[in-house]
Specification:
heterodimer, A: alpha+beta, Acetoacetate decarboxylase-like, 8 helices, B: 355 residues, 14% helix
């Protein structure tokens, strides 16, 4: 956007600006197989928008890591460190106190390749698509949706210890419709649940692990992932302890409808944000055979599941059980910052030429060099 | 046309909306015209950076607003002429006031005054409605726990609202369910005739004429008082933050929509003197209350005899109602049941659009 349009800040706006700081977060992560075709389908629909030549990039799955990660996060404290708007005389967000919340999301690594020989090197990056994300705090859902391009839904999220000490149990309930009949009333329904036995070593597990996350890291696939990514673009810090991210850069499609014609978009952009995991500690692994993860394949939930699971074409109305390949629990401090629009798409307008759009695709590792040696890109098409 | 890319997270309640048998309580409240003007100047009249070809002013004379609480038993989308699609129920609270919208001519003079309603803030207890209202209509709607109960007698009315927030801002404070608003009728409250109430407060006549003209409690469709009215026209400032520069908007526009009521029933009027509306003075609500109602004398406790309920979410601390109360003087109370149609007319102006 070439013209700066001011935002009118008010308490009623609900949009608490980043950066955010989240100390002492407990994370339970579960890894499941994901179809590369599904990931490519997701990339093509939500990320590879427009013609490849014009947009200058293409998103593809990370072929040597065919896993999706389901993360349950318990944030005891969430702090916005954004400064107060000087002209409003507001209390700074960091001085107001903290909120707490729970969050669950599915993360799938995707690789953004620059188009052309030079940009294949300078514009290639690993990012994380979040095809499903729910939170327990309404303000968090509003901020995620309206500012960050994350499709956060508001859910009832119950997490805690399962039947056994040091085990985990999580449950998500979402508003939905049990069938697609006209007039059926929306109701809060169970969408997903997970239950584990205690983390390893445990006397209560039923079978020895086929492959723990630790052993998964020693696999040829993981070696290729770590080695390949590191060699390509020095992204070794994207992964630590296997797939416990230390710098998870998310990518999401931020878009707004036209009010009078809801099938028309008035704004579309790809937004990335960095979730930096610091002080990762107390890492514990679950036996993947001790993890029971099911989704509820109800009518209005089916369209969520078909994005990343191999469910049938029609909802079955029954639980859909998923085989996990690994699971772990750890604690971390998380910073959420460095928001960036990497691609603002041209928008058709009535009576005016389309907006020009813009791109800022330079990979993180190359940004200092690019900034030192060349003019800043980001205004107008590359 | 740039197509909106649909996903389950943006699977919203597409307009128009239809609400059947919605139960509504309206509280007419006198409001300082300077506060209305301030809201209009910062939201609608400001250059951002271009000026919209409209100018908004408060209505002449004594200015009033409506605090509306509605229980929507069956709200659904009628997008593309479907009926009963995506049916939900929810309870909402909306603060709204009428203004005049003038067209600004090439000569910079104001022409064609047209009455429109502004909604500075709103709350709902349904996230699906909140996302749709915010992202399509541009309504500044937040989530709340809302309870609306009525009994055999008018005095049985109890409306309570709690939000997630802080009673007092402090770096060590932790958000929780906090009381936000209470409404009720005094034990002596009884239905009254509108004529009698208007005789007692003659300033209300003009405002009630506006409510009649916009069909708010008479109905816009088949009202029986003449030709159908267009209903209430509502203008909202629809804006979303830029992700990189938080003081900038990625999109900012003025949206025009209408609400038409029909099939009005169970209409009743109550004296403002028998009505209790009070907000709780938390730091989370302070800015909104100050901008809406200005200052006022705080009371240490509620004027309602019934103790406030706990509206906290499962597994969280009970709702904190232990705050000072800001009573709001009510001029008139109105209750009715009606059907309603919500329709988006157009986007009146999009800021920052240059060739």
């Amino acid at each position: 956007m070439s013209t700066r349009v001011p935002y009118v800040q008010s308490a009623a706006s609900q949009q608490v600006p980043p950066p955010y700081h989240f100390p002492g977060v407990t994370v339970n992560a579960f890894y499941l197989n994901v179809s590369m075709a599904k990931v490519q389908e997701y990339c093509d629909r939500y990320l590879n928008i427009g013609e490849e030549k014009t947009r200058g990039y293409v998103y593809r799955p990370v072929p040597f890591w065919p896993y999706a990660t389901v993360l349950f996060l318990d944030y005891p404290t969430m702090i916005s460190s954004a400064p107060a708007s000087a002209h409003l005389g507001e209390v700074a967000y960091s001085d107001r106190g903290a909120i707490s919340q729970t969050e669950v999301f599915v993360a799938i690594p995707v690789m953004r390749y620059g188009v052309g020989a030079a940009k294949l090197i300078t514009d290639t990056a690993v990012e994380w698509a979040l095809p499903f994300i729910v939170v327990g705090n309404p303000m968090s859902s509003v901020c995620g949706r309206e500012m960050l391009g994350l499709g956060k839904l508001l859910a009832d999220i119950e997490i805690g210890e399962g039947r056994y000490p040091d085990s985990f149990r999580g449950k998500i309930s979402l508003p939905g419709w049990p069938d697609s009949e006209t007039g059926t009333m929306q109701a809060q329904q169970e969408f997903m649940k997970v239950e584990t036995k205690p983390f390893l070593p445990t006397p209560t597990g039923t079978q020895p692990p086929r492959r723990t996350l630790a052993s998964l890291l020693e696999s040829p696939e993981a070696s290729k992932l770590l080695g390949g990514v590191a060699t390509a673009a020095n992204f070794i810090d994207t992964f630590s302890l296997g797939l416990i991210p230390t710098a998870m850069r998310t990518v999401g499609l931020k878009q707004y409808r036209d009010a009078a014609n809801p099938h028309r978009a008035v704004y579309q952009a790809l937004v990335t944000c960095r979730a930096q995991y610091l002080n990762v500690r107390d890492v514990r692994f679950y036996n993947e055979k001790d993890i029971d993860l099911t989704f509820n394949d109800l009518a209005s939930f089916h369209q969520i599941l078909e994005v990343f699971l191999d469910v049938g074409k029609e909802p079955t109305g029954k639980p859909f059980s998923v085989n996990t390949v690994a699971g772990c629990r750890f604690m971390a401090d998380i910073n959420f910052d460095t928001m960036r629009i990497i691609r603002e798409f041209p928008i058709d307008r009535d009576g005016l030429p389309p907006t020009t759009g813009s791109s800022d695709l330079v990979a993180r590792w190359y940004r200092p060099l690019r900034g030192f040696f060349g003019p800043r890109r980001g205004v107008g098409l590359p | 046309m740039t197509a909106f890319i649909e996903s389950f997270s943006t699977d919203q309640l597409l307009p128009p909306w239809q609400s059947l048998a919605a139960r509504t309580w309206l509280f007419v409240i006198a409001v300082d015209r300077g506060l209305i003007a301030q809201h209009l100047d910062t939201r609608f009249n400001a250059a951002a950076p271009d000026r919209a070809p409209f100018h908004y002013t408060p209505l002449p004379g004594k200015t009033y607003g409506l605090l509306c609480v509605t229980r929507h038993e069956s709200l659904s989308s009628t997008w593309e002429h479907r009926t009963g699609c995506d049916t939900v129920s929810h309870t909402e609270l909306v603060w709204t006031f009428p203004t005049l919208r003038y067209s600004v001519g090439a000569d910079n003079l104001l022409h064609d005054p047209h009455r429109v309603w502004i909604q500075p803030f709103a709350f709902t207890d349904n996230s699906y409605v909140m996302f749709s209202a915010r992202e399509i209509w541009g309504t500044e709607m937040g989530m709340a726990a809302l309870r609306m109960a009525e009994g055999a007698a008018p005095a049985d009315l109890a409306i309570d609202m709690a939000i997630e927030g802080m009673a007092k801002f402090d770096p060590h404070a932790q958000s929780q369910s906090i009381g936000c608003m209470r409404m009720g009728l005094r034990p002596t409250a009884a239905k009254a005739s509108l004529g009698q109430l208007l005789d007692e407060e003659s300033d209300l006549n003009t405002f009630v004429d506006i409510l009649l003209a916009d069909g708010i409690f008479t109905g816009s469709i088949d009202s029986g008082i003449g030709t159908d009215s267009a209903g209430m026209e509502i203008n909202t400032l629809r804006q979303f933050r830029d992700v990189f520069d938080m003081d900038s908007a990625a999109y900012r526009a003025i949206v025009s929509s209408t609400v038409q009521h029909s099939n009005i029933r169970d209409l009743a009027f109550f004296s403002g003197a028998n009505t209790v509306v009070e907000f709780l003075c938390s730091d989370s609500m302070e800015e909104t209350l100050h901008a809406t109602f200005g200052g006022g004398v705080h009371h240490p406790q509620s004027q309602l005899a019934v103790p406030p309920p706990s509206l906290n979410a499962k597994g969280t601390p009970p709702t904190n109602w232990d705050m000072e109360y800001l009573p709001i003087e009510v001029a008139l109370g109105i209750s009715y049941t009606a059907d309603a149609q919500f329709h988006i007319r157009t986007t009146l102006h999009t800021y920052g659009q240059t060739a």
